[in-house]
Model the fold of this input.
Amino acid sequence: MRAATSRSTFLLGRICGLLYASDARTARTKRRRAQPCPAQVRPMKPAVAQFSLALRLVHWLMVVLLITMLFMVIVMVSVAETRTWRIGLHRRLAS
Done:
């Protein structure tokens, strides 16, 4: 029984030691962050206020294409009479 008690005391001491070490690291980090940046460290670049025209055009082209594809799927599924036409269209678009 005594061995189990000393083992649990040892484990509890180790866990408390880890918690105290973690608290000390947090305090060091807070002190480090409060200090001004050294002169040799370059500041971060400012955030981009606006994307380029080419990227915006590609973005909106993709939006239009996705909405068009969704519309095509809805039409193709809802109209059952045109199955052969849909298969032909699919073959033409897929090749």
